[in-house]
Design a protein that fits this description.
31% helix, two-stranded antiparallel ribbon, globular, Rossmann fold, nine-stranded mixed β-sheet
Length: 241
């Protein structure tokens, strides 16, 4: 495996796990592109390469990268879709190699599934909009954080050997880590208000108009996405124990 680069030239492979709706693809490109924009706004000078896993696109080798980030997706992390099965196989190999991994939403769930945790539908239905989480992990961070979310699946049991980092009543396992090589989070630190509002507009009819209005109003308040991006930077750049 190649030696890690210095922090200023750290290379990160983004496994991009969705294709955005044509109505928003020109504005936002992909979850991977949104993630890159988040890190740039947070002052994180990493170099990125994106690969579309839904089309079977992967690097020839992961050895050239210091870390791998798995994005969100509308797919179920536990589904039998061929591309999802392939992604789980690739992720399991990376875990065996103790590759540094970051997971967001679907990525958070898929990594947990590969580690042996239970993942499934959230008992409370859809998590959406700006949601509040308590930071409970041993690594210092904000006591509470507000992030934009969009999910109906979540991690139901903490993966074996993992440490709980953040929680809420709605999402008891909102973030976790495994030693110094895995950090995953359920909400979307890369989301911006306009994209979250567009997702909300596409929500199922089962979400009441009053609930959508309440969620939409809260989206205009600040969220901690850039702070989470910097936490991810510090986690990845921390020397291995």
């Amino acid at each position: 495996m190649s030696s890690p680069t210095t922090a200023s030239t750290l290379r990160v492979c983004i496994l991009d796990n969705d294709n955005l709706d044509p109505a928003v693809v020109d504005a936002y490109v992909s979850y991977g592109a949104m993630t890159e924009k988040m890190f740039a706004a947070a002052g994180v000078p990493w170099q990125f390469e994106r690969f579309d896993t839904t089309r079977g696109d992967y690097p020839e080798s992961f050895d050239a990268y210091d870390a791998v980030l798995l994005t969100g997706s509308k797919a179920d992390s536990f589904s039998d879709e061929p591309w999802v099965r392939t992604l789980r196989e690739r992720t399991t190999e990376l875990l065996k190699q103790r590759k540094k991994l970051l997971g967001i939403c679907f990525g958070h769930q898929l990594i947990a599934h590969c580690l042996g945790a239970e993942v499934g539908r959230a008992a409370g239905g859809w998590g959406m909009g700006r949601m509040r989480y308590d930071w409970v992990g041993p690594t210092p961070f904000k006591p509470t954080m507000n992030l934009l979310a969009s999910h109906q699946d979540q991690v139901k049991t903490l993966p074996p050997g993992a440490t709980l980092q953040a929680r809420s009543d709605f999402c008891p396992i909102a973030a976790y880590s495994v030693d110094d090589h895995v950090f995953c989070i359920q909400p979307h630190p890369e989301f911006v208000e306009d994209y979250s509002a567009w997702i909300l507009s596409k929500r199922p009819e089962s979400v009441s108009a009053d609930r959508r209005a309440e969620v939409r109003a809260a989206m205009a308040l600040p969220h901690d996405g850039l702070a989470v991006a910097r936490f991810m930077r510090d986690f990845i750049e921390r020397p291995a124990a």
